[in-house]
Design goal:
This protein has a domain of about 200 residues. Helix content is about 40%, strand content about 10%. The chain has a 5-stranded mixed sheet with strand order 3-2-1-4-5.
Length: about 300
């Protein structure tokens, strides 16, 4: 069975959850790492790794010589995520900073570069994760992105609560959706654990508290602190990793079928149903399920060739 991983940032490092599929057959392994390089090392046997950090960084707000949404700030996926999350989406989704800000050495220079590049200052929390964004970007490549990809936990929780529907390419259901209690409260954590239980993953609240104490106490890295919501979001990453892996496997299956069955490849793909692979517009994959990604088809790429997309 394929191994998958969910990764969420914590104060001073990363929380890594590793499982053998979804729902896991055996016990989930949870650990903390100090650097992204170490995250890659401990997840080297995983076939899908969901990480809650921007991958694929935009450029200036307006660049006339680049068509469409390619290399443009803000990222389309960030705007779509905000819309999906409704009225509170703006405060819950920080716009990924442009690549030009990665060289900033302090908050003041960061805001200056952000202002010069986009015409706007960034939300204060963005500076707090810039070092992680820079670190991840230094390792990422288009090839690695086929295994290590960006996800957003709040979209995972929303999809588990009320499945996100897609009416056509790059559009989502209206933003008036059900809302969840804050994951910084016990009630909010319990609700999310209940959503995981509905998918077959049963974890009690006390296990999160045990993990939190053990990881923080036993961590060999100084200044690392693990919170309950860090653990919760790493678990959400496992669900996103499984969906990503299923999609990748469906695409590979579709390519094999197309190579071996020329008639099927040439035939109009007008009917979608159980067992179909991917429609030409990229909206569905095997099993008549919407691709859990925004944008849903042809995500724009940054100058490094990294896709600017968010999975859930």
């Amino acid at each position: 069975m394929a191994k998958i991983a969910g990764v969420d940032g914590c104060r001073g490092g990363w929380v890594v959850a590793i499982a053998d599929g979804w729902p896991p057959v055996s016990q989930i392994k949870v650990q903390v790492r100090g650097t992204f390089r170490e995250v890659l090392e401990v997840t080297k046997e995983c076939e899908a790794i969901a990480i809650d950090i921007p991958i694929g960084l935009p450029g200036r707000r307006i660049i006339p010589q680049w068509p469409g949404s390619f290399y443009r700030w803000p990222r389309l996926c960030d705007l779509m995520a905000r819309d999906l999350l409704g009225p509170k989406g703006k405060s819950r989704v920080f716009l990924a900073p442009p690549r030009q800000t990665l060289n900033a050495t302090d908050p003041r220079s960061f805001q200056q570069l952000h202002l010069e590049t986009t015409g706007m200052k960034a939300s204060l929390p963005v500076w707090g994760i810039l070092s992680k964004i820079r670190e991840v970007d230094s390792y990422m490549s288009p090839g690695l992105q086929d295994r290590v990809f960006e996800f957003y936990p709040e979209l995972v929780w929303m999809d588990l609560l009320q499945p996100i529907t897609h009416t056509r390419i790059d559009t989502c259901a209206p933003s008036h959706r059900k809302t969840l209690v804050s994951k910084h409260t016990r009630e909010g954590i319990e609700v999310r654990l209940g959503l995981l239980k509905n998918t077959g993953l049963s974890i009690e609240f006390q296990w999160l508290t045990i993990w939190k104490k053990w990881l923080t106490k036993s961590s060999p890295f100084r200044l690392i602190s693990v919170e309950l919501d860090d653990l919760l979001d790493a678990l959400a990453g496992l669900k996103a990793a499984n969906d990503f892996l299923e999609y990748q496997m469906s695409r590979m299956k579709g390519k094999r079928l197309n190579n071996s069955e020329q008639e099927a490849a040439d035939a109009p793909n007008e009917h979608i149903g159980s067992g179909d692979i991917e429609r030409d517009d990229g909206l569905y994959f095997e099993g008549f399920r919407s691709i859990p990604r925004i944008p849903h088809a042809d995500p724009p790429k940054d100058p490094k060739g990294l896709r600017m997309e968010i999975w859930y």
